[in-house]
Amino acid sequence: MDYSATITTSASPDRAARMITDDLELWWSTRVDRHPTGFTIRFNRSHVTFAIDPGNTTTDFSWTCTDAHMIIEDVDEPQEWKGTSLIWRVAPTTGGCKVTLTHKGLTPQIACFDVCQRGWQHFFETSLRNHLNGEAAIPETSQPAA
Fold first, then answer.
1. How much is the pLDDT for 44?
2. 46 contact partners, CB below 8 Å, separation of at least 6
3. Hey, which bits of the chain come out as E strands?
4. Global model pTM greater than 0.85
5. Of 110, 41, 51, 109, which is closest to residue 80 (Cα–Cα)?
6. DSSP structure string for 50-83
7. What are the sequence ranges of the domains in the chain?
8. Are the CB atoms for 83 and 107 separated by under 8 Å?
9. Which of 38, 6, 43, 45 is nearest to 28 (CA)?
10. Is 73 exposed, middle or buried (0-12, 13-18, 19+ CB in 10 A)?
11. What is the dihedral of CA 32, 35, 39, 41, to 10 degrees?
């Protein structure tokens, strides 16, 4: 089963969706390289590149990982994320919205599942939720070792 979680926020659906995509540096990693068709997120010596999928709407969108180099202790394959997708669903609720993230392909069968699931618990379930609610987010700030 793919990693999936839902958070709630007082932000409107349009505002939440905009903050997810426009504020990557504020909730995920301070090292984001944007390009016309997607972006690359960097942390430590690792990186993942995502293409923004066609057919996205304002509140239902997805990104496909086109390149990955994840340096994780006890994980031999640094490209496990390549070909996986982040699927975002933002739905209105009374007083705000709920945001669901499904990382399609992040399953218990891949070696990084435990550490990557903990990563999403931090970056999605805590940092992004805080950011959407006007609280202090906790993005990755590490730099590669010199």
1. 86
2. 69, 70, 71, 72, 78
3. 3-9, 31-35, 38-43, 46-52, 60-69, 85-93, 96-104
4. yes
5. 110
6. EEEPTT--SSEEEEEEEEEE---TT---TTTTTT
7. 3-132
8. no
9. 43
10. exposed
11. -30
Asked whether the predicted pLDDT for residue 127 surpasses 60, the reply is: yes
Tell whether domain 3-132 is in CATH 3.30.530.20.
yes
Query: Which is nearest to 139 in space by CA: 112, 124, 111?
Result: 124
Return the residue matching tokens 């919205």: 97
Cβ atoms of residues 106 and 89 within 8 Å: no
Give tens-digit pLDDT for 36-70: 999 999 988 899 999 999 989 989 999 999 999 99
